[in-house]
Amino acid sequence: MKRYAGGVKTIHTCCRPVLAEAINAEEADELAQAFKLLADPVRLRILSLVANAPGGELCACELPEITGRSQPTVSHHLSLLAEAGLISREQRGKWAWFRAERDRMAILRDALELG
Predict the structure, then answer these.
(1) CB under 8 Å to 50, separation ≥6 — which residues?
(2) pTM assigned to the model
(3) Which of 35, 72, 77, 97 has the fewest CB atoms within 10 Å, i.e. is most exposed?
(4) Over the stretch 82-91, which tens digit does the pLDDT of each residue have?
């Protein structure tokens, strides 16, 4: 993962499965940062909503009502998820549409496999 100015690392590759063999300190740091990003319940819910949206994408305009959070709060969480590469953003006129990046989520899933 590569760290960006906002402190969020983009998830490219990570670690060997933690249950297969011991990971080193750098791998532990990278994996912990990725899971820390998902440890926020609002971000985790937003990721789940985007990943399970009909047609595979969701307009940012829908999320404040669905989550009960303000537009600036939702925008902040979407930005962090996009910086990490867990979702992608496409601007269409006034609104941004988001799609889950399942390959990036698979990196985190694979780190927890039995190996």
Answers:
(1) 57, 58, 81, 87, 98, 99, 100
(2) 0.81
(3) 72
(4) 998 899 999 9
